[in-house]
Amino acid sequence: MKIVVNDVVATPADGGAYSILQDFYHSVENKNDGNEWYFIVSGPFLASKPNIHIIKKPELKTSKIKRLSFELFTGRRLINKINPDIYFSLQNTPTFGIKAKQFVYLHQPLNFVLSQHKFRFTVAHERRLAIYQRVFGRVINAMLKKSPAQVIVQTQWLKKELVQRKIKVSQNITVITPDVEIPAIYRVDQLDRAFCYPASPIAYKNHKMIVEVVRRLVEAGITDFKFYLTISEKELMDLGINNVPSQVICLGRIERNRVYSLLTKSALVFASSIETFGLPLLEARTIGTKIFSTNIPPAKEALDGYRNVVFFKPNDVDQLQQLMSQWLAGSQKISVDTVKKTNPSRNQNLAEFLIGG
């Protein structure tokens, strides 16, 4: 069987989107099951293998016009020439004119939260998000509605949104919860007086809220703790965040194994107000750490049944400050028994679903 996977959007700088590509690639590399995989990507960050062919299309990453043209008109020639049995888009949009059975992995939530959060064209640091939400979001919805492609989503919440908006009927949508394989050495027992938040520098990830909470804790005389962010100091400034307390440590981009190490010693504070799933939540749950998470439907799904979590209202600085203060005042011991009982069982992965395994 031949399977073409298209993800020219994801690069190592793209956080969660690249993690999805990376995890999918690793799930199929070096398998001797007779299947051939063709990955269409924008750069040299995936290696060819006996069962994997890499096709580089950097121009589709740098030009949205060229990418849209590829999806609507030109892409079919390249893909149909390969003559695949399955075509799989990991980047939210279908490609028209494909002869093979087609699947689209939808993980862009912005246009599904307009009633809760509408980004503004008039605000400089929101302008790019406003374009994605209110222009590209409509394009994605229209393409999905017109295409015969099956859609794969990460949560029941997003499936319901697609059905309610009449973009797809229920039987053409499959929910596959992400699955992460984290080595057993990354497990929690005793946490440091530390918090972490592995997230990209995007406005709705709410780094400004995190820094404000830390500032308030310090002003209240609570100074003996660290808060690790996986963005740079410049990226904080670009988000309009200045006068950052010394307790905030900007690590910049780090490898996932370093994220796992952080989660074995730090409580996760997940402040994002817009998500389709929230991969750090699954990673933290698997490792067994304490989690403080914003109370949004995707996070509730990802953490269903997990005991080491406390939810707070989106953008509620006072509530998060109180929760972090209480935790710092108590013990940072984590119950291993609780972790074992509440870790989720392994889900069918994307590759298994595509090839019907």
UniProtKB/TrEMBL annotation:
Broad enzyme group: transferase
Transmembrane spans: none
Domain Glycosyl transferase family: 195-331
Keywords from the UniProt entry: Glycosyltransferase, Transferase
Keyword Hydrolase: no
GO molecular function, one term: glycosyltransferase activity
Enzyme Commission identifier(s): 2.4.-.-
Protein name as it appears in the record: Glycosyltransferase
Native organism: Lacticaseibacillus paracasei (Lactobacillus paracasei)
